[in-house]
Amino acid sequence: MACMHRVTAPQRCPLPQALHLRIIPNAFCPACRTSYSSLPVLNRVSLSRPRMRSPRLCSPSAYLVEGASQVAEIAEVSLPLVGGVLGGLVLTFIGYRAAVYARIQYITAALIGNQTPPDAAQVLEIGIGGGKNLYYYPKGVGTVLGVDPSPNEELLNQSAIQAGVILDFRRGSAESMDIQSNSMDAVVSTYTLGCLPLPARERVLKEVARVLKPGAPFLYVEMLRGACKGTLELIEGCADFTGVEYDAGWATNSLDPHAIGVAKKRGVSSQQAVVPGSKADQAIEELENKLRKPRKRGSSSKGIR
User: Fold this and answer.
1) Residue 52: which of 37, 30, 76 has the closest Cα?
2) Residue 117: which of 27, 35, 227, 213 has the closest Cα?
3) CA angle, 255 as apex, 230 and 262 as ends, to 5°?
4) What is the mean pLDDT of residues 142-153?
5) Within 13 Å of residue 97, how many CA atoms lie on the same side as its CB?
6) pLDDT(44) > 50
7) CA-to-CA separations, 214 to 115, 117, 146, 178, 265, in angstroms, rounded
8) What does the H/E/C string look like for the chain?
9) 143-148 and 166-171: which strand pairing?
């Protein structure tokens, strides 16, 4: 039996009374995870089931309800103006948008939960908004630093408390951040870059690369429809990133394309650097010792014996 959590319905809901869901599966625990199908194998980025900070990660059905409530306002305005076949098409479009929203949120949770270093001391999230992603970070993450020019601070603080995350919020633009260079173990951006003009996106990517540690990941989920086009090309063309990976299926989706993937800052991380006393360091030391040894008379000068 799936774990059920009671939630309070909003005071005003444009959905019909039959769709007022007061009890929804709002989380899944180890006992009921098998009731959900695993994520599909992506073309270039492998997103397995997320490592959750807490059992507050919503199930796909909960996301579907949330997406339906967001697009229902469109129906409330559109349906009185249309009828018959056209009205059916509008309802079909609304259902599709709700399904896409649910799926994208579920994949976002998997991306952040699996690709964020579990022992990260500091993670930066640009465009943090109301803090919906705070529930997806691994349990071992130290501090999440959120930057947003116009956040919902009340909802953000509530989300941080409920998710058990140490949040350091700073109001401002991601184009110019007062953050030390090479200090972040990961940077997350969801539906942020696409809201900016192309020149502003380039500046944000430069700032993201500046604050990231060498070898640290940049995780992104961005819309590619309409004015949001070009974000993936900017990430791939940024000289500060290497190993850019993305889901080709979502990137080429004809109806609702998204850029979902990971890029890493160029350079070698401290974990990948040669540690003193390692085998490579010992081999170098042995070679230097051989070169320092005095040669005997009559020995060949072509090599070291």
Assistant:
1) 30
2) 213
3) 45
4) 93
5) 16
6) no
7) 16, 13, 20, 19, 5
8) CCCCEECCCCCCCCCCHHHCCCEECCCCCCCCHHHCCCCCCCCCCCCCCCCCCCCCCCCHHHHHHHHHHHHHHHHHHHHHHCCHHHHHHHHHHHHHHHHHHHHHHHHHHHHHHHHCCCCCCEEEEECCCCCHHHHHCCCCCCEEEEEECCCCHHHHHHHHHHHCCEEEEEECCCCCCCCCCCCECEEEEECCHHHCCHHHHHHHHHHHHHHECCCCEEEEEEECCHHHCCHHHHHHHCCCEEEEEECHHHHCCCCCCEEEEEEEECCCCCCCCCCCCCHHHHHHHHHHHHHHCCCCCCCCCCCCC
9) parallel
In the numeric block, the tokens 């089931």 are attached to 49
Token digits for 286? 């042995």
The encoded tokens of residue 281 equal 């360091």
Which amino acid is present at 75? A
Tokens of 150: 């116009």
The token pair that represents 303 in the structure block: 């090599």
**Residue among 203, 235, 210, 212 nearest 222 (CA):** 235
Can you tell me the distance from the alpha carbon of 186 to that of 202, in angstroms, rounded to the nearest whole number? 18
Range of lowest pLDDT (7-11, 71-75, 159-163)? 7-11
Largest CA distance in the chain: 103
Cα distance between residue 45 and residue 94, in whole Å? 28
Window from 17-21, 212-216, 292-296 with minimum mean pLDDT: 17-21
Query: Which residues touch 14 (CB under 8 Å, ≥6 apart)?
Result: 69, 72, 73, 75, 76
At residue 181, what is the residue type?
S
